[in-house]
Design goal:
Elements lengths: L5 H21 L3 E3 L8 E2 L1 H10 L3 H27 L4 H17 L2 H14 L6 E3 L2 H48 L1
Antiparallel strand pairs: 1-2, 1-3
Helix pairs in contact: 1-3, 1-6, 2-3, 3-4, 4-6
């Protein structure tokens, strides 16, 4: 009854977030131009690939886990909780798990770090920004809005399922009282 338009917004934000995440993963966000360093353009996936190739596997796995896997997992969990879960307890459990995954999705932290590097780090290492910076900004913004909208929608669903559960228990109680 309240905020009937919110499921549509959540679906649109999920689609927008998915598209912007893919762009953020693939589009280069900076190019190092220092003559003494390799002149490569870096995207999130290219960074993971480079770190893995340089045998910095712990960093490669950390970046892949926190910047790729957890944001994608978070989107999947939002879709699953929004569209598939009907029981009160399962929705509560899913929301708890979603909260944990959301805390470990570090795309916004990465965006802040890249922003600081682009502003201050360019004094140390000559760099050029690439179009992927905007993909990263859009992905961060859409994921922040999605997180808020999905949270509101799932809380509303939780209240709605809770009310239906209470009504069912009340009806069962009345039927039992009538039969006894």
């Amino acid at each position: 009854s309240d905020l009937l338009w919110l499921p549509i917004v959540v679906i649109l934000l999920v689609v927008g977030s998915a598209v912007s995440l893919v762009a953020a993963f693939y589009l280069p966000f900076l190019k190092i131009t220092a003559w003494f360093l390799s002149k490569q353009s870096y995207s999130i996936l290219r960074t993971v690939e480079t770190l893995w190739g340089d045998h910095d596997r712990i960093f490669a796995v950390a970046i892949a886990l926190f910047l790729v896997v957890t944001p994608v997992l978070r989107l999947g969990m939002i879709v699953h909780a929004s569209l598939r879960i009907k029981s009160l307890e399962r929705l509560r459990t899913a929301m708890g798990r979603l909260d944990v995954v959301s805390r470990w999705a570090a795309l916004d932290v990465f965006g802040l770090a890249i922003g600081l590097f682009l502003v201050e780090g360019s004094n140390l290492v000559p760099i050029e920004t690439r179009g992927g910076v905007w993909g990263l900004v859009v992905a961060i913004a859409l994921n922040a809005v999605l997180g808020f909208a999905a949270g509101q929608f799932l809380k509303g669903r939780l209240r709605q399922i809770g009310r239906a559960h209470v009504e069912l228990q009340s009806r069962q109680y009345l039927v039992c009282r009538l039969l006894l």
